[in-house]
Amino acid sequence: MSNTCIRVLADPVQIKQCKEELQQLESPLNVLTRMFNLAGNATRFKILYLLHREGKMCPCDLSDILEISVGGISQHLRKLKDGGIIRDKKVGQTVFYSIVEENAQIIKPVLKSLSREKETVS
């Protein structure tokens, strides 16, 4: 079986509609691409899962849970924060991180699927 395309007749209406739709979705697609590129790292995805599950966490707790140095956790948090996926809030001497609400709506279905998967395995 060959993976080549032997198109007999192009559908110019379909092609035009798809191009127009992609142009209209340019901005949201860029946001999603940026978010999933950042979340594509296993450690950062685990951090997002934990922040989703717990609401907010400090780097020290994330470090203990993931068994990664606080410095390593901080680098991942910085990338997620610079990407606009999470935010920080200082309470006294401690900095807590949480998922930006707009982004939570985008990534929640993926994170919820992990919770359902955990229930299936238990």
UniProtKB/TrEMBL annotation:
Q: Which domain of life does the UniProt lineage start with? A: Bacteria
Q: Does the keyword Transcription regulation apply?
A: yes
Q: Which UniProt keywords apply?
A: DNA-binding, Transcription, Transcription regulation
Q: Where is the HTH arsR-type domain?
A: 25-119
- State the protein's name: Metalloregulator ArsR/SmtB family transcription factor
UniProt organism field: Splendidivirga corallicola
